[in-house]
Amino acid sequence: MGAGEGGRTSQRYFAAHLLRTSAFASLGAAGFLTHAATSAMRMTTPAGPTIAQPTPAALADAGYRALLEALAAYRQDGRRVAAGDYAFSVGHGELATPAAARFMFEATQTLRRRRAAEPGNQWTDGWLSTHSSEVYEISTESLFVGRQDAMQRLVLPPLMDQLANVAGRGASDVQQDQHSSPRVLELACGTGRLGTFVRDNLPYAEYHAVDLSPFYFERARSNHRAWEKLRGAKLARGAAGAHFYHDSIERVPDELARVLGDDGRWFVACRKVYCVYTFHELPMKAREAAVRTMFQALKPGGVAVFVDRIQLDDREPLDRSIGRFGDFNEPHYRGYISTDLGALFERAGFACVEKEMNSSSKRLSFMKPT
To answer: Which InterPro entries does the entry mention (predicted)?
Structure first.
C-alpha cells in the first residue's frame, strides 16, 4: 500500500472510530441516566445490602481513562490497517436502532441488579437467550466505549499468514491461502460478528464455527447470512461459504466428524483455528479440553490463535484492579488471570510463537509442529 493510500485509509479509519466511540460513550451515558431517572421515579430503595453508587467525579475519571484506552487501541489497530496488514469494514450492524433500543433496556436492568447486589447474573439471562444474543455486542462495546472490535482484530495477523516465516511457509503459500479455500475453524463463535471480519480478509476461506448456546448459534448464522448478502460480489468469485455446528468446544461434534473427518477425526486438514474471549469464561478442565480440540483440529504446521483478556503481569499497573471484572458474575475469571497459558498449550503439544497486546486484550499464537 502506497504512502498516499495508507494516509487516506488512516484518515477514514480514525474518522469512523472516533464516531464509533462517541456513539458508544453516548449510549453508555444514556443508559446510566435512564437508570437514574427510573430509579428516582420509583422512589424505592432495594431491600438488603446495596453497592455504593459512583460519584460524578469517579464517573468522569473512569470515562476519561476509557477514552484514553480507546484512542491507544485505535492507534495500534489503525497502524495495522494503514499498513495493509488487514482490512476493516463498517456496516456490521451492532449500532442499528433496534439494537440501541434493546441496549437501553438491558443497561437499566443490569445497573438495577448491580445496585441491589443481587446474587444472580449481572447479564440478563446469563447471556443464554435470544434477547441476550441481540444485546451482547452493543453491551460489551458500550462497556469498552467502542474499542472491542479493535482488540478482537488482534486475531487477524496470524490468520492472514503473517507468521509465514515462522511456519516455514513462503509468499506463494500465503497467496494460495487468500485465493483458494483454506479451512478455518472458530471455536465458541458467539454472535458470529468476529467471523465476518475474518471472512472480510479471507473471503475464499472455508469457514467453520462451533458454539454451544443455541441462541448465539442462531445469531451467528443470521449475522453470516447478512454478511453474505452484503459481500455478494466477493462470494460470486468463489468463496467456500460458512458451516455451523451447535456443540461444545470440549468434544468432537459427531456431525462435523462425519462431514470433514475421513478417518474419524475432525478437522484433520484445518490450517487455522482460533478462539476469542472464551477462556476467561471456562473452568480449568474445560480450558484444557478446548486446547486439545484446537490441537486436534490442525494439520501439522497449522496456526492456533488465542485472544482474550490480559492477565496478571501483562500490564503491571493494572494488576491491583484486573480481578474486578470477576465481580460481573464471572466465576472463573480470577482463576483465568493467573493461568499459565503458554504451559497449557505446550502440554497439548503446541509450540509457542508470539504474543501481542492491545489495550485490555492479548493474543497468543501457536504452531502445531510438522
So the answer is: SAM-dependent_MTases_sf
